[in-house]
Amino acid sequence: MQRQEGQNSRMKVIIVFALILLQTCSQVATAGSHVVEYLPGFEGPLPFHLETGYVGVGDSATEEEGQVFYYFIESENNPQEYPLMLWLTGGPGCSSFSGLIYEIGPIAFKDEIYNDTLPNLVLRPQAWTKACSIIFVDLPLGSGFSYAKTPYLHRGDRSVVKLAHQFLRKWLINHPRFLSNQVYIGGDSYSGTPVPVIVQEISNGNEEGIQPRINLQGYVLGNPITTMEEESYLPSFAHGMALIPDELYMSLQKNCKGNYIHIDPENQLCLRDLNSLYEIMSGLYEYHTLQPKCEVPFSSHGFWRRRSLINTFRRHLSSRLTRPPLSCEINRHFTSYMWIIDDRVQEALHVRKGAIDSWITCNSNDYDFDIINSFPYHVNLSKKGYRSLIYSGDHDPKVPFMSTQAWIRDLNYSIVEDWRPWLTNGQVAGYTRRYSNQMTFATVKGAGHVAPEDKVEECFEMFIRWISNKPL
């Protein structure tokens, strides 16, 4: 009897020790990560769990030529049960800080004109972190606070895919309590190119037995660049939105014969009509037809032209655009730049001093566009049965919703729930359709290229319902 009691006592000690060890491994920050309890500009302690840090990545699993910076926000409700999502902002080459602060994170900048003091932060009640934990990651290296230790480390689509895959497995090793959580990969805009490939790489890695196994369930994409043929739908979009007259639209169809990208330089009639189209639309904001067009102090090139949206404000601070009008979307981006370059902010975020020369939202320098079309990866993922949510702001001329509908239609899956409105607060928030490959497509009424930034409440409701496996 005493021997049995002794064995039971030793077993209890072992169990308690194991539980303490597991808790320690899952809660103590690793060498490159820190829990952030306060942020400059936000009053009081943060009412959510924020962790920032670096994960070493490179050409092999053991080498760490690059350091990927991330912001991790634990779900505000039941983090042990709710899914985990890795989020990559588009660009290409953009920091996911923009996704956190403008779109789906729990904090945002107060809607006020910058006045030479540190910008103020407020809570965003419609944070997607209500329903899942999110890792916002700065990829490729050279964007945000991520950096390469070596003079040159390849930057491009394939590199983003490899490093994102490597990052996530390493991050899960450092955070073992999330190993069993369902995992999704998300992003918008140019992330429509690498995200489906990342999902496939993770899936392949699981099948090959790479550890730790990732409990991959699917992906989320907003206004995604997919085929690099998105511009070919601009005439249809412009006509459908009553931006060009019937006569010009019919002339474009006749003279260009449906080819609006790879144009024969000898086809002068097509070129003439396209020039008319661009001239008519030149007075519109290129990412949202309903918003005012503002003079923007950074280079802005068409995504389909394979160039990036670069906003390095430093050289423009002395210009007359130092204080953009509050009505302009760019005011929020300007505010965020003035906040994140502040030394107090970087200290609070535990950024490594001297690791980067300057913080850049989007860095496409020397970027290799080596994934031409992500459509084949959607084909593969559909066959494997992964869930997906594809949404489109219906006032986006950059990636018109009909271009997204076209490649979804080309997947050739049957419709299981036909086109219908989806509602928030009793009002139509957009339209949706579900397919037999577990893909849900949704439009967001009145939103532009970055739908969660334009329609916060609507996109919050859309995501919460989808991630909870409920109809929109």
Uncertain residue segments: 1-5, 7-29, 297-322
Give the CATH topology of the largest domain. Rossmann fold
In total, the number of domains comes to 3
User: What is the CATH first-level class name of the largest domain?
Assistant: Alpha Beta
Largest sheet: 12 strands, mixed
Subcellular location: Secreted
GO cellular component, one term: extracellular region
Family: Belongs to the peptidase S10 family.
Keywords: Carboxypeptidase, Disulfide bond, Glycoprotein, Hydrolase, Protease, Signal
Search tags:
14 strands; twelve-stranded mixed β-sheet; 472 residues; Rossmann fold; AB_hydrolase_fold; acyltransferase activity, transferring groups other than amino-acyl groups; 18% strand
Please tell me about this protein's structure:
One of its GO terms (molecular function) is acyltransferase activity, transferring groups other than amino-acyl groups. One of its GO terms (cellular component) is extracellular region. Residues 1-26 form the signal peptide. This protein has 13 helices and 14 strands. With 472 residues, the protein is an alpha/beta fold. It has 3 domains: 1-30; 31-229 and 369-467, Rossmann fold, CATH 3.40.50; 244-283, no CATH class. Strands 1, 2, 3, 4, 7, 8, 9, 10, 11, 12, 13 and 14 form a 12-stranded mixed β-sheet that branches. A two-stranded antiparallel ribbon has the order 5-6. A hairpin with a 3-residue loop joins strand 13 and strand 14 (439-444). Helix 4 crosses helix 10 (375-384) and helix 6 (246-256) packs antiparallel against helix 7.
